[in-house]
Write a structure and sequence with these properties.
By secondary structure, the chain is α/β, with parallel strands linked by helices. It is built from seven helices and ten strands.
Length: 204
């Protein structure tokens, strides 16, 4: 099965269109103000209005109040929600919209418990754990901690680059992969060469 690819941290229309041209299945928009890849809902909506069909747009939130989530979704018109904080499963379910949950991998036992807690998600995104940092660390984690029979499709994130993506996919065969910093020229600005190399590596 082909590995789906999400390019996250989109801040410019040219990066969005380049990712789509390279074969990206999804684009991520970060609505977390402390992030260097933060984008306003209005700017995200402007970019999304110019995209072709059959590309999933993903709204990334970190412990955002529900009223703000509703407002941002209405303005941006994102298709899918990605919860990247300490949100409960009940909170994630409450928006009547498809969602994925990011889990920061600390150890095998806590990961297994979290996977069961969020089994209503469309997929589970596995990212590196660093205390106090919700994501975007640019670090890989110990892939051997991933259970062999997860309850939901897995999206691999955390420190992926054009250099390591092929081995990651061959070893783990995830449903999808998610990259942000690994395909950037600088924070928030993508590198077209890296985007194309990453997507080729995900599906050699």
């Amino acid at each position: 099965m082909r590995t789906r690819v999400k390019i996250c941290g989109i801040t410019r229309i040219e990066d969005a269109l380049e990712a789509i041209a390279a074969g990206a299945d999804a684009l991520g928009f970060v609505f977390y103000k402390p992030s260097p890849r933060y984008i306003s809902p209005e700017k995200a909506g402007e970019i999304i209005s110019q995209l072709p069909p059959f590309v999933t747009t993903v709204a990334l939130f970190v412990n955002e109040p529900s009223d703000d989530i509703y407002r941002i979704l209405e303005v941006s018109h994102c298709d899918l929600i990605q919860f990247h904080g300490d949100e409960s499963a009940e909170f994630c379910e409450s928006f009547n919209r498809p969602w994925i949950k990011a889990l920061r991998v600390k150890d095998a036992s806590s990961l297994s418990l979290q996977m069961l807690e969020f089994k209503q998600a469309r997929a589970l995104l596995l990212d590196s754990y660093r205390p106090g940092v919700p994501g975007g660390t640019g670090e890989t984690f110990n892939w051997e901690l991933i259970p062999e029979d997860p309850p939901r499709p897995l999206i691999l994130a955390g420190g992926l680059t054009p250099e390591n993506i092929s081995s990651a996919v061959q070893q783990l065969q995830p449903y999808g992969v998610d990259v942000s910093g690994g395909v950037e020229a600088q924070k928030g600005i993508k590198d077209p060469v890296k985007i194309h190399a990453f997507i080729r590596g995900a599906n050699p």
